[in-house]
Each structure stands twice: as structure tokens, then as C-alpha cells.
Write a structure and sequence with these properties.
heterodimer, A: 177 residues, mainly alpha, Rna Polymerase Sigma Factor, Chain: A, Arc Repressor Mutant, subunit A, 2 domains, 74% helix, B: 257 residues, alpha+beta, eight-stranded antiparallel β-sheet, 6 helices, 22% strand, elongated, cell membrane (chain B)
Amino acid sequence: MDQSELAVLLKDRNKIAMKYLYENYSASLYGVVVRIVVDEKVAEEVLQDAFLKIWEKIANYDAQKGRLFTWMLNLTRNLAIDKLRSKEIKRVQKTDELNNNVYNIERNNLVHQNIDTIGVEKFLDKLREEERLVIDLIYFKGYTQSEVSEEKNIPLGTVKTRLRMALINLRKALGVR
Amino acid sequence: MNIQEYISSGILEAYALGELSSSEELEVVENLKKYPEIKEELHKVELSLENLALETAVSPSPQVKASVLAAIDDGEHEVHGRNLGVWRLAVAASVTIAAVSLVLAYSYYNKWKHTEHELSSLIAQNERLAQDYNQVNKKIDQVESDFDILRDARFRRVSMNGTDNAPKSQALVYWNEITEDVYLSINSLDMLSKQKQYQLWAIVDGKPVDAGVFNSGVKHLLKMKSIKGASAFAVTVEPKGGSVSPTLETMQLMGAV
């Protein structure tokens, strides 16, 4: 079933469509979530929240604006990022209220911990170093482009074009023509 | 507006990742309606993001599915009771029955639509399978006929090794002296440009005789021209279609019978 048909059925509150949606897209979305929040228990909570929110908010999805998956991806990413921040802020408050850098250090650790463990490497090693950094932080770690620009001291325009080049260079490997 | 510049600024990637402010987003939506090129490019960006997620997918544990589906079911079972008179109850009952049948009809309609769609995708899948099956069958036929030649004791196996031009190349000739049939099996040969082809030569009475042209990359046995009384076989690189006499300096393979 293609995504536009699926969206129509979901807007009709069709539960079978919801089951189909889960069966076909949960692993894609879960991969995104688990790379951002790392902890599997937390990631599963986020995934569940994401699907319930998709079901609740499907009326807001506008096919004119893009694909259903893109809409779900962003909704899910936002939940994962919110979760990561609330968790990290708690941890920061517990350990050291004065140290503003902990947030950054935590995130930097995650980058190294995770990157080769969950099958991302084979895609990223097709890219140049600077493109790899940008796509890893933005796509797999949930940074915004402006956060990357600030933390890595790269002009925002450059971050944007690097992300674009990275995705273009991945197209062939991803079967997009 | 310069569309190429607009696209290469990376604004569509930012849009797809939901990073634009709502006014910037509105502007992109307007442009999507106006310029098909932008719409097409956005589609590619979205597919890249989607396929990247698919390729790096991780399966969640099965409990998540159960609780998502259960939560969706629960959400729709909010029933509230009210004190009603008998006739009101009767009206309520008939209205309920009507409503329930409406809902059921609707739900069956949806199921039917869904099933119909599934059926057509199954038919398509079935066709694909049939095609695959035919291809595999063809391949097996090929392999079987190749195998018959390989195990036929009347075929002599002549191993041709790479010359200094192509030390890593290797191929085999299967030659039946009685029927004069010649088959070629390529083990390893460099790719050639489209204007060139390989040509097999048999050395008969000290002179090269054309045994046919071929391309590299063929996995099965190639039937070549019939040859009588060969003492050796060799392969050269020739212009597409082959030459009358071999270009000796391009000699790739050579093997004595």
C-alpha cells in the first residue's frame, strides 16, 4: 500500500491501516529513536508515544506538504529529542549543577559510542569526513543545523550545504534516482 | 527566482527535517505548488531520508506493537450510561442498531477496500514470482547444457593463460575434434570499451583461423565457430565485429592443445 493511500485510511480512523503502518514503519522509526536516546527501554517508550501521537494527530498531516513518512519521522524525532533533553537535564542537575558543558560532553560521547554499533557505518563511510560529521549529528543524533553550527563552529550555510551534499552522495546507495 | 540556487542552498533538506520557522515553511510550500522541479527535488530528499531510515532500521521488541494496538483500541471504548424511560430506551436501541450497522458497514467497506488492494498487490507479486521462475528455469537449462559439454569425454579441455599483456586473464576452450565443436568458458578477462571485442583464433597448420568474436563478462559457455585440426588457441583484442587476421600485439591469451 503506498503512503498516500495509507494516509487516507488513517484519516478515516482505520485500525487495520494503523496495524499496517506499524508493521511497515516501526523498525525504520525505532532505528532513528534508539540512536538518539540510546537506552532501549526509553526508546521503546518513545516509539509507543510516537505511534499514539501519529494516530491522534493524523488529521494534521497535509499531503501537499510532503510524504507521510517525513511527517512521522519528524514527529518521532521531536519526541526522541525532547526525551533526550529532559533525561540529560535531569542527569546534569544531579551530578553538577554548575557545569554547563556536561550536556555537550554527554552528547559527544554518544557519537562515538554508537556509530559503529548499529549498522550505520556502511553508509557513512561513503562520505567525506565533514559530510559524515554533519549527517551523523543531524540525522542520527537529532541535532538541529544551528546546534551543529554553534557547537562545531561551522557557519550555518556550510552546515546546510554539507548536509545536502551528504544526502546527495548517499542517493545512489539508497536507490534514489 | 533561480531554482537551481534555491535547491542547492539546502533549504529543502532543512524543510524535510522540520527545521524551518513557520514563515519559511509557508514559503517552501508555496514554491512547491509553483515549481515542479522543486517538488521533484523535495521528493528525492524525502526518499533519501526515508530509505536511510529503512536501511538502518532496528526492530523494536514485539511488546511495543501489542501495547500500541491495545492503546488505540482502548481509546475508542468510552461508553457512558444514562437513565432513560422505556420508549426512550427503545428509540435509543434502534438508533444504536442503526449506528452500529452503519459503523459495521463502513468498517467492512474499508476492509473490503484494503483487501482489494492487497489482492492486486498479491497478483503483482505473483507475476513477479512467475517471471523470476522463468528466468531461473532458463538459467538451469543453460547450466544443464553447459554441464553436458563439460562431462563429455570427447571434448578436449584447452587451458589458455594470460600473456604479458594480461597476465591475470584466463579462459578455457572445450574442443571436440570429431564434431569440430568449440566452446569457450571465460574465467577472467578485462572489460573492453564498446568499440572493441575479443576474438578467438585457432592455430591450424601454423596459421591463425577465426573462431568468432565475443564479449567479456559472460558466465556460461559460449559456442564458437567450428574448428578442424587446431594445434593451439589464442585470443586477441580487435575492433568490434572482429578482424580478418589477428592483431598480434594485442594477444591476451594463448594455450596449446
